[in-house]
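Could you please review the protein record set out just below?
***
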Amino acid sequence: MGLDSAGWVIVALCALMVGISKTGIPGFGILFVPLMAMVIPARQSTGAVLGILILADVFAVSYYHRSALWRHIARLIPATLVGIVAGYFVMKVISDEQLKPIIGVIIVAMLAVNWWRNRKGEDNGIPASLWFAAVLGFLAGLTSMMANAAGPVMIVYLLAMRLPKVEFVGTSAWFFFIVNWLKMPFSLHLGLINMESIKLGFYMLPFIITGAVLGIVALRKMPQRVFEVTIQVLALAAAIKLLF
């Protein structure tokens, strides 16, 4: 990919962040999307990131193989697949730059609703509604296909479900493991995945593994409330970045 020394350092840092986000702090990986785009052209970076994500997914689901709550994944996947297909076609007519502010506004709005619910201590039944899972599942598929940026969307959904931190991370890990493989044929057809991106992922394995271990340690030591506040702050930071 013609990376210079600084480029390799940034890619390695991104791989480390991906590992941490997959096993410890969902949302931490949002930082790697803009960083990768700094050293690799935006469209090409989408495929490069996908290769790293899939390898990190393997470690995450291996460690959290008993922690996923499959009823939530089952509710999300049908609409997510529709979102992936939509993202595939949208990539032919709209740019990442046009989509980003729209996603940013949606994420900020959903975080605000979640904050209001928690402050009021009310359960108005919205998270249990099928339309809620359908809307967020579709957005997750769309944003994941277009920019590998579905993390904040999944954070909002799982926060609304009020999951304990281990089940939160386990469910997220399995959801994205499935989603990233569903994206593979579409990414191949768009030319986003090639031998260069596959090799880059394997080059980054030591950093992915290191990040995964750091994520597991961080999650063990982090209290539930600190975990929830941290991922909400990261999701809000991602939304602001998308807006501006």
